[in-house]
Amino acid sequence: MRRAILRGMTGLGIAAVAIASFASSASAQSLLDKIKNGETIRIGYSNDAPWAYPGENNEALGLDNAIVLEVLKKLGASKVESVVTEWGSLIPGLQADRFDLITDGMYILPERCRNVLFTQPIASIPAAIVVLKGNPKGLHSFEDLHNKGVTFVTGAGYRAVKIAKDVGIPDEKIMQVAGNPEIVQAIKAGRADAGAGDYLGMKKAISSEDGLEIADPFTQPEKPGYPAFAFRLNEQATVDAFNTVLKDYIGSEEMMKSVAKYGYDKSTLPDGSKTADLCKG
Fold first, then answer.
1. For the whole model, what pTM was predicted?
2. CATH architecture group of domain 127-214
3. For the segment 107-137, what is each residue's pLDDT rounded down to a tens digit?
4. How far apart are CA 150 and CA 251, in angstroms?
């Protein structure tokens, strides 16, 4: 009896090890393997027009999604599924395996490079601030936001937060919200005097708002923003494969035609900056 029990326990132990090994192997499967095996590829993004946002039936819309869907197709992917979440949940969601890559307009920043792998940039995007019509407080730079002591609003985790702190704007004057729609609402409600973000995002966010405008002229920060696609840290081979396709696709007639409706044009093409350098700061 005791031997039979021990044999049974041994058998269960071997089965448990086999199951654990299989689970570990499955979780370690690379995105390239998933593509090769015909599995569904999950792309993660927030409701962040014109970069990436859901349409009817969760259709993946936006300029980033237009690019990534074509790249995935060229790599052999046939099934793609959208996972829409808040901006601040994108990197944690990627790390938790809720999706396979981030397709939102995420800028390459040193602090993010410690948590994800970025492809080469897919664009170079200027910054912008949104103000009330007529720009009554004369805000034309981040330095103006600091010198005039105004409260400004931006997205939590946006590059504008770091720019603001670099010019000396105190934390209590920086309102951080979920995304561009909330930036617009904060200005309209009088809780902030200006809103900051990327030019394309800000332009889209106020496209139907008569009482707001983008400050013009506007003194740009030292560097534009460089959006790219983000992957888990163990996906270097996948990033290399993406970069190979992107090298020929970015700026091509095929690509420019697909993203023109989102405001992307030749002026927003990558300027030659490399991810490795941008990750250093």
1. 0.81
2. 3-Layer(aba) Sandwich (3.40)
3. 999 999 999 999 999 999 999 999 999 999 9
4. 39
